[in-house]
Amino acid sequence: MEREITEEKKTAELFAANLFSLGNPEEAALRIGARPEEAIFLGCGLMKNPEVRRILKRLGKCRSSEIEASAGLRRLAFGRINDALELLKDDQSGVSAERLDLFNVAEIKKVKGGGVEIKFFDRLEALERLAEIESRASETSAADSFFNALGRGDGKRSE
Questions:
Q1: What are the tens digits of pLDDT across the range 44-79?
Q2: Model confidence, pTM
Q3: How many CA atoms lie within 13 Å of 76's alpha carbon, on the beta-carbon side?
């Protein structure tokens, strides 16, 4: 029989996954659909949720610097630029820079004539570095499998 997943559990899982990869409760809440004016309160509230804590604890067991680097590189490679484009609009009333996700932005500068120039991090370079990390992880995994197999040379299987 298929278990029904409650809306609350889905929200907890999505929030925990976003919090794990972003490291910021406000950004994580925005990613799951919170309104900007409520995001910090919702994020802090969800951090107290027992389900969120359980998921984060489980995810934390597999966290390493390579996983964190991969998460950052994924954000650079696949991240949205919508918030950065908000800075280019003529009407910026209601736009608060602290509420914008500018993770992909490498540089912002005003140019002569009153314009704004936004430079983004190189997505291709982020993808290449991500591929390097995943390749090393794959090689390490293959080496571990090889050495584990050698260790089982007595005919016993490890589980």
A1: 999 899 999 888 888 776 556 667 778 888 888 888
A2: 0.48
A3: 20
